[in-house]
Amino acid sequence: MELTSRVTALCVVGAILALVLKKTSPEQALLLVLCAAVAGLALLADGLGELTAFLRELGERSGVSETLFIPLYKTVGIGLVVKVGGNLCRDAGGAALASVVETAGAVCALLAAMPLLRAVLELLMELMG
């Protein structure tokens, strides 16, 4: 809860300062937003490390192949990066660029999920044959 409050406070203060700065210097406002986003993500580093360790342990204890968990993690990571990147593009006035980022994210997520899709296909082929 404390971490959420700190990240939220940082981002809200960054957004408010960027809003004030946007009138006189839109470029600096965008850089401020970008710095606030990076700082917010840096605050999450410890929590992400702990979460990653738990997910690794979960995979080991469940007996499910790691090759099935890795695409899931990659897909979630891609989704998070695309969400932040797309919103930053929109804030900078680049709606078309945001669409490209989102399209690239969808393609990359499908590519990352390819091992899962192949495993499902193999299972279906075994069941049918």
Largest sheet: none
Roughly what fraction of the amino acids lie in strands?
under 5%
Radius of gyration of CA atoms, rounded to a whole number: 19 Å
Distance between the termini: 51 Å
Number of strands: 0
Helical amount: over 70%
| Helix and strand run | HHHHHH
- Integer average pLDDT: 89
Shape: flat
Estimated structural class: mainly alpha
- Count the DSSP helices: 6
Low-confidence stretches: none
What do you see in this structure?
The structure is a single chain. Helices cover 90% and strands 0% of the residues. The longest helix has 26 residues, at 66-91. With 129 residues, it is an all-alpha fold. The chain has helices at 2-22, 26-43, 45-62, 66-91, 95-112, 114-128. The termini are far apart.
Identify the notable features of this structure and list them briefly:
0% strand; 129 residues; mainly alpha
Please give a quick description of this structure.
The chain is an all-alpha fold. The chain is built from six helices and no strands.
Q: Secondary structure elements and their pairing?
A:
Blueprint: H1 2-22, H2 26-43, H3 45-62, H4 66-91, H5 95-112, H6 114-128
